[in-house]
Amino acid sequence: ADSELLDRIRSAPDLGALDALRVSALGKSGSITAQLKSLGKMSPDERSAEAPKIHAAREAVTEAIAARKAELEAAELEKRLATEKVDLSLPAPERPQGTVHPVSQVLDELAEIFADLGFSVAEGPEIEEQWFNFTALNMPEFHPARAMQDTFYCRRIGGDPAEEAHVLRTHTSPVQIRTMTSQPPPLRLIAPGRVYRSDSDATHTPMFHQVEGLVIDKGITMGHLKWTLETFLKAFFERDDIVLRMRPSYFPFTEPSAEVDVGWSMEKGRRVVGGCEGWMEVLGSGMVHPKVIANCGLDPDEWQGFAFGTGVDRLAMLKYGMDDLRAFFDGDLRWLKHYGFRS
Ligand code: PHE
């Protein structure tokens, strides 16, 4: 009977049939299990004669099952390898790829242009002390100029409004103060970053980006400022025929002050392409006010300089032809795919 069982195991057609044989022999009510149980009812002599045979039979069956199982599994694998061919020539599914946001792109372009002019990059905090954002920039407390910018004030939860010591910086100009008070002149730097004003329409968002420029040295004049701005704007818009307009203006921290407009034309959307069907203000600038230089502990008779602040998002709009600033910060993937840059 045992040799017949072994034959059936060796020729089991598949894993299911093999398992059924295993149960019929070694399971709870299997034939070999029954023989093992019968040992208990035998006399000692009988048992010592029978036990080795029964154990040997169990061993043989267990081994035969394991061997057949390995054979059947190997055969199954062979079959799968033969049928499931991997076609390496199939194209891989396309993976969506992100783009560089136009603001990041323009910030990189600006850093590169100014690096060529010998400017380094400085940074400052977005939650700024009022002294850096206003006071040191010649806007003392209660000075009406503080109202020029719609400021977000920071207050501790449950705190006293009189203790509003911090603001979300309204411009990158506080970085002028931070660098002048921490590094010895001469200075030549740009400071890119986010700034905040409570304002929103097609060309204003509550958060936007500026790049500040600051040069502090001896014998710096308005001529240096004009040359620098012209050189930078021509490099940025990648053409020599752009039209610039410098308008006298007022900032508490520069004297004299000038705002710079670039002419745009409809030739290819509202872009800067030479010509001037309209003007777009792109930056504020001027000679650093002697009081600001003195506020930073420098002697204004020895050190002079110029500063400017430019709106990065507007520069991007004018160079790449977008007409709504708000779209910059909506995170709409279709917009990003269209206007973003492949890295
Ligand atoms: N901080 C000014 C603004 O945001 C721009 C500016 C910077 C003007 C530096 C003059 C000099 O409007």
TrEMBL record:
Subunit organization: Tetramer of two alpha and two beta subunits.
Coiled coil regions, renumbered to chain: 58-87
Gene: pheS
NCBIfam families per the UniProt record, alphabetical: pheS
Record-listed Mg(2+) binding positions: 255
Cofactor(s) the record lists: Mg(2+)
Official protein name in the record: Phenylalanine--tRNA ligase alpha subunit
Pfam families: Phe_tRNA-synt_N (PF02912), tRNA-synt_2d (PF01409)
Catalytic activity field: tRNA(Phe) + L-phenylalanine + ATP = L-phenylalanyl-tRNA(Phe) + AMP + diphosphate + H(+)
